[in-house]
Design a protein that fits this description.
The complex is a heterodimer of chains A (123) and B (130). Chain A has 123 residues and is of the alpha+beta class. Chain A has two helices and three strands, in the order ααβββ. The longest helix of chain A is centred in the first third of the chain and has 51 residues. The radius of gyration of chain B is 26 Å and the shape is rod-shaped. The chains are: A alpha+beta (123), B alpha+beta (130).
Chain lengths: 123, 130
């Protein structure tokens, strides 16, 4: 009677292939979590930028170019759009919506929108 | 009948040489994964710190009568004020530097991933940092 004393070549290849698949899976999951964390940091930066721009609109005091440049750091291809202005009956209650758009490291377009009050007469 | 009583020296040598190649490879792979995971965690911590520092600055902006002071001591960014103005709060830890520049403040956070591997992230908040 023939007895097996160990694994066959096929069994060993299957084991190695499974380990390889698991390795690739872990690597891909790690990539996703790393990318999401980076995007979360960019989102926080975009929120800070949007708040500063809303403060600018609310107070009428313009942001210094250097300050704005620092706020835009870490946001590749950043663009700021004024989505809409809700003109109320009283000018002081005018609202302004700002959309900060940028591209993530994987080229995905991302955006953050904030709404605030605008000082009467401010652009 | 021939009975096997264990590994031959050749089999042992083959197993040891394969292990010598595979073990460092696995070690490097796991280490790279751990580093990337730590980096991701650090980015999330930095995002959270940026939000809390920014919110505190915005809150303080609405209370101009309060005497607030931000200090950096032993890597902790602390905001000190009277009890009516929110008291003393530690806004961030592992802070390498705090630099007040025109229109805001730059805060550099640091994380040591390995004895020889240090990662820093800079955050910037707009406003007057006292």
């Amino acid at each position: 009677m023939r007895r097996t004393h160990g694994m066959t070549l096929i069994e060993q290849m299957i084991t190695v292939a499974l380990i390889g698949i698991l390795g690739v899976l872990f690597s891909a999951l790690s990539d996703i979590s790393e990318r999401r964390a980076r995007e979360e940091l960019q989102r926080a930066r975009a929120e800070v930028l949007a708040t500063a721009l809303l403060n600018e609109a609310a107070t009428g005091v313009p942001l210094a170019a250097e300050t704005r440049a620092k706020l835009e750091e870490g946001l590749p291809g950043v663009e700021v759009a004024q989505l809409h202005v809700l003109d109320g009956s009283a000018p002081a209650t005018n609202a302004i919506s700002l959309v900060v758009k940028w591209k993530s490291s994987s080229g995905l377009p991302l955006e953050v929108a904030l709404t605030g009050l605008r000082k009467a007469g401010a652009k | 009948m021939r009975r096997s009583r264990g590994f031959t020296i050749i089999e042992l040598a083959i197993v040891l040489s394969i292990s010598a190649v595979l073990v460092p490879l696995c070690f490097m792979f796991v280490r790279a994964l751990t580093t990337r995971s730590d980096l991701a965690t650090f980015d999330l911590e930095v995002a959270s710190t940026l939000r809390s520092v920014h919110e505190q600055l915005e809150l303080d902006r609405t209370r101009p009568a309060c005497a607030v002071k931000w200090t950096l001591e032993a890597g902790a960014l602390t905001r000190t004020a009277s009890a009516e103005c929110g008291g003393t709060l530690v806004l961030a830890r592992d802070v390498k530097s705090l630099e007040r520049i025109a229109g805001g403040a730059s805060v550099v956070l640091v994380k040591r991933l390995a004895p020889e591997h240090e990662v820093t992230r800079e955050i910037f908040v707009a406003g007057v940092v006292p």
